[in-house]
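FAQ

Q: What does a record look like?
A: Structure on top, sequence underneath. For example:
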């Protein structure tokens, strides 16, 4: 039953592989791993008296467990340890053949295969703990992997200490317990992997909904979320914040003269150059087209102008693959927490318009809000 369910799970994983965003790796390897494990179990059940089939079923299962490890590594963006994968199945094939035909010993065969499987699981557990995000889903996944590897370890130890009980084709207590739980654990480990994949999917989609795909800066929605947080902080801490509205000059000409691809490269370049000139606590967003907005939390006008000049002078330096271009910047400082985001954006936009009007490649500062906005709203 558990074997049938594992086969069904491989279809689920493969379908997830086809439909999940391509940056979520490892699903294909896990789907292939389940197919191999199911095939290995079927071969093992059918092996009868044939040692060749027994040997082959063990190799197939080692491929399956190896692919689970590779899938886990790929999921956590770790370079796949193909050398562990290949050494494992070659070792299993050679050593099992030796202890099957040359010096037949059932207990050594079990001990050896347990050691190999244990190493594959241990590597996966190490990768999860080193690169995981310490969320519930990760702990669930790693706990299941650990239980499975401990079961394998116990079987290996029992093989060399008590001879007969570990034979999976026999009727010993451990063999019955092991068989009952081993297939179930394969299923559970897959569920654990699907849990971390689902969490990764959620994070990826959330990020996609708040990021501009070309420049990887915030989009309008992401910016509004960040602004709400910074605005609440500003109200609490009674500080200022400053907004820069940055627009590339004559961007249409860049597209017309160099092509859209170079235009896109310029957009990525400007996002990178702006980010380089900022602190990590500052935020950059692309508001569509060639317009960028920067939010400088806890920053008054003097410091904001310093940053504005830094951005403009950084853009003057020649960079390979990017035609020369300039930007105009509108600077608006928010000194009252009662001012709305829309109003701040309008002031920054007006200042930008002024900079464009006055010849471009320059900045202009927005007029301050003259009267307290609450009083104005009440009037
Ligand atoms: N390559 C590229 N071009 C874009 C993208 N989005 C908008 N544009 C182009 O940006 C240009 C904006 O042109 P305008 O609004 O006339 O502005 P401008 O030429 O920069 O002139 P000023 O802002 O007045 O200095 C248009 O040609 C759009 O096609 C994009 O994602 N990639």
């Amino acid at each position: 039953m558990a074997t049938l369910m594992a086969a069904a799970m491989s279809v689920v994983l493969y379908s997830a592989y086809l439909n999940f965003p391509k940056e979520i790796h490892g699903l294909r390897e896990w789907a292939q791993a389940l197919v191999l494990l199911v095939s290995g179990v079927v071969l093992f059940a059918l092996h009868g008296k044939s040692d060749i089939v027994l040997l082959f079923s063990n190799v197939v299962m080692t491929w399956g467990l190896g692919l689970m490890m590779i899938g886990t590594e790929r999921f956590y963006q770790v370079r796949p340890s193909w050398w562990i994968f290949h050494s494992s199945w070659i070792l299993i094939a050679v050593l099992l053949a030796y202890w099957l035909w040359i010096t037949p010993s059932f207990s050594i065969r079990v001990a050896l295969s347990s050691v190999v499987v244990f190493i594959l699981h241990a590597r996966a557990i190490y990768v999860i703990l080193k690169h995981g995000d310490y969320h519930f889903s990760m702990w669930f996944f790693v706990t299941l992997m650990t239980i499975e590897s401990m079961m394998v370890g116990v079987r290996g130890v029992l093989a060399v200490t008590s001879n007969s009980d570990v034979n999976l084709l026999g009727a010993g207590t451990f063999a019955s317990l092991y068989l009952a739980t081993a297939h179930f654990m394969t299923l559970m480990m897959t569920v654990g992997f699907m849990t971390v994949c689902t969490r990764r999917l959620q994070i990826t989609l959330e990020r996609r909904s708040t990021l501009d795909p070309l420049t990887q800066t915030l989009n309008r929605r992401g910016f509004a979320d960040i602004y709400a947080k910074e605005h609440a902080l500003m109200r609490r801490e009674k500080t200022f914040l400053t907004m820069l509205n940055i627009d590339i000059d004559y961007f249409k000409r860049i597209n017309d003269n160099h092509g859209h691809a170079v235009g896109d490269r310029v957009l990525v370049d400007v996002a990178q150059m702006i980010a380089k000139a900022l602190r990590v606590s500052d935020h950059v967003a692309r508001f569509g087209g060639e317009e960028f907005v920067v939010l400088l939390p806890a920053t008054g006008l003097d410091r904001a102008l310093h940053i504005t000049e830094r951005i403009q002078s950084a853009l003057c330096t020649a960079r390979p693959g990017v035609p020369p271009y300039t930007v105009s910047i509108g600077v608006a400082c928010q000194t009252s927490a009662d001012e709305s985001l829309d109003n701040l954006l309008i002031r920054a936009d007006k200042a930008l318009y002024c900079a464009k009007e006055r010849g471009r490649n320059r900045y202009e500062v927005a007029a301050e809000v003259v009267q307290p906005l609450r009083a104005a709203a009440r009037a």
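Q: Is there anything notable about this one?
A: The pocket of guanosine-5'-triphosphate is lined by residues 214, 247-252, 255, 260, 263-264, 267, 289-290, 356, 360 (CB under 6 Å).
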